[in-house]
Design goal:
Chain lengths: 356, 187
């Protein structure tokens, strides 16, 4: 999915160049046709141009970032091509967690005060449904096939499984205390959840809908990220100021990396070679080199950075700054903030908030 | 059948009333004041982490570790009770420091949902704050901001420990503190 979606600005440029070359050819061809007074191949060229345009639009539709603004009861939609907020949708219930369906058509936003989540249609850019799940919904994710929505409930120590087609609860999986971040493996077989107050991460079989293994991590694990192949989990431990690296097959801890104060969530970039971690109380993002497992930079962002996710180009990192109500854009290559986008009060964006 | 419908409707109403509660949402207070005094002068009043004499609500401060990383202080309040805080970040050149509350005494105990609930001297939980002085060419602007949760971390908070109580209390301390700082600096 990452490769298809890897329609970065570079690719965009290549496509544009291609179109231009074809355009030049067309013009030249027509010129020759007119001179020789033969039938032109104009319709075919036009068709080619149109099809290129359509493909470009589909492949290169600017991915959108959906940022929940908890204190504003809203979700900001950022067009990442222009890095501007193109719409703000009212979502009541103190929106926190964000998940986007694989096709990019639906965004699920957990609403702890409304005891569930809101369903946003991204074409209409409005809430088309609200679902009551339980007392304290927070972490939310969608399965890679788009069929299921998993909602972690802070108070009930469980993860709810909701069918995406009819929004009905299929199951309730008992997990550890205060489940927070949730993520499904790329092959759709496993669901991982950080149990904040249990200081552990659990692996859930998505067929049996049961916990198969739980591993102790640092103190108060919260947000987690999975690498592209689903081999490793990187979980931020809020209280012990570090990140635990877990082998998903054995569910063993393979490393612990120190970061800064109150790390909240994690994101991977550049072919899983770098990890980025929001440090809430340091107003920074730690960049960790995954070869050496060492922090290589601490990038200053806004105040109280929380949610963090990687753009589909695998290079730009978007960070929601809770206190400042904005989003910092980091270039993962040169480790610098290249943009700051105003969003709303209490921006959280907890989860994989990017969508096609 | 009718009876059943009525019954379930009633149940639904009751159920809604019970689950009207929700998980805590982090709150913020952001106060600032313009002071007609040089930033260096303003900073000199507040720069020592173990001296909170500029804050009217505080009777005395006991500090450990000066302005170093992890320094602690215990504030004894005028109204009685104590707040313990830890220094998380200190930047003398940038004229700012960041701290968080690690412990508080409680001022009373109330009955709520059939259990004893202690009310801390500041009705907040997980409180972290930053105070910063900025030079505005002769005058200065001081910002004091904090992020925190309401004092009651479970569902259904009592009025003493809900979001409103937390926000009101923190706002009052910040306002009073900044106004007094202005008075002291402009003297």
């Amino acid at each position: 999915m990452k490769t298809i979606a890897k329609c970065s600005w570079e690719t965009n440029r290549i496509v544009q160049k291609l179109m231009f070359t074809q355009f030049k050819k067309t013009v030249r061809a027509e010129f020759v046709e007119v001179r020789t007074q033969h039938k032109t191949n104009y319709p075919i060229s036009l068709l080619f141009l149109i099809s290129i345009l359509v493909i470009t639009k589909q492949l290169c539709a600017a991915p959108f970032a959906y940022i929940s603004n908890q204190l504003d009861d809203s979700v900001s939609i950022i067009d990442t091509q222009t890095n501007q907020v193109v719409d703000t949708i009212k979502v009541t219930g103190k929106p926190a967690g964000v998940a986007v369906s694989p096709d990019g058509n639906t965004v699920y936003v957990s609403t702890p005060e409304a005891h569930g989540f809101a369903v946003i249609n991204t074409r209409q850019r409005k809430v088309i449904n609200t679902v009551e799940v339980s007392d304290g919904s927070l972490g939310i994710t969608v399965s890679p096939d788009g069929q299921r929505i998993y909602v972690a409930d802070w108070f009930n120590n469980s993860v709810y499984v909701v069918a995406a087609n009819n929004l009905k609860i299929i199951n309730k999986i008992a997990v550890g205390q205060s489940p927070s971040g949730v993520m499904v493996s790329p092959n759709n077989r496993w669901l991982y959840v950080a149990n904040r107050l249990d200081n552990s991460v659990s692996k859930i079989d998505t067929n049996k809908m049961k916990v198969v293994k739980t591993v102790p991590v640092g103190e108060h694990p919260f947000g987690l990220a999975l690498d592209t192949r689903g081999d490793r989990i990187y979980v931020a431990n809020v209280k012990s100021d570090d990140v635990t690296v877990i082998d998903t097959r054995t569910m063993q801890v393979i490393n612990t990396v120190k970061v800064s104060m109150l790390p909240y969530a994690t994101a991977l970039a550049m072919n899983d070679s770098r990890l980025f971690v929001t440090n809430q109380d340091d107003s920074s993002v730690s960049a960790v080199d995954l070869e050496t497992m060492k922090e290589i930079a601490r990038i200053p962002v806004g105040d109280k950075p929380e949610g963090i996710a990687t753009h589909l180009d695998d290079r730009h990192i978007y960070v929601a700054n809770w206190f400042d109500g904005n989003v910092s854009v980091i270039d993962a290559r040169n480790l610098k903030v290249i943009n700051t986008i105003k969003t709303g009060e209490g921006s959280r964006g907890f989860g994989q908030f990017f969508g096609k | 059948m009718k009876k059943f419908q009525l019954c379930s409707m009633l149940l639904a109403v009751l159920f809604t009333a019970v689950v009207q509660a929700h998980g805590p949402v982090r709150q913020k207070v952001d106060e600032e004041i313009t002071i007609n005094a040089p930033a260096a002068k303003v900073w000199s009043i507040i720069k020592n982490y173990d001296d909170m004499s500029w804050l009217p609500a505080v009777k005395s401060t006991e500090g450990k570790g000066g302005n170093g990383d992890g320094a602690t202080r215990t504030l004894t309040l005028q109204k009685g009770g104590t707040i313990s805080e830890e220094l998380k970040k200190y930047d003398d050149a940038g004229m700012m420091y960041q701290y968080k509350i690690t412990d508080m005494s409680s001022e009373k105990t109330i009955q709520h949902n059939g259990a004893d609930v202690k009310i801390p001297v500041l009705p907040v939980d997980n409180y972290a704050a930053t105070i910063k002085v900025e030079d505005k060419g002769g005058s200065s602007v001081v910002t004091w901001k904090a992020g925190f949760y309401r004092g009651y971390t479970n569902n259904n908070p009592p009025a003493e420990l809900n979001e409103e109580a937390a926000n009101t209390a923190v706002k009052a301390v910040f306002k009073e503190g900044l106004e007094n700082l202005k008075k002291l600096a402009e003297k």
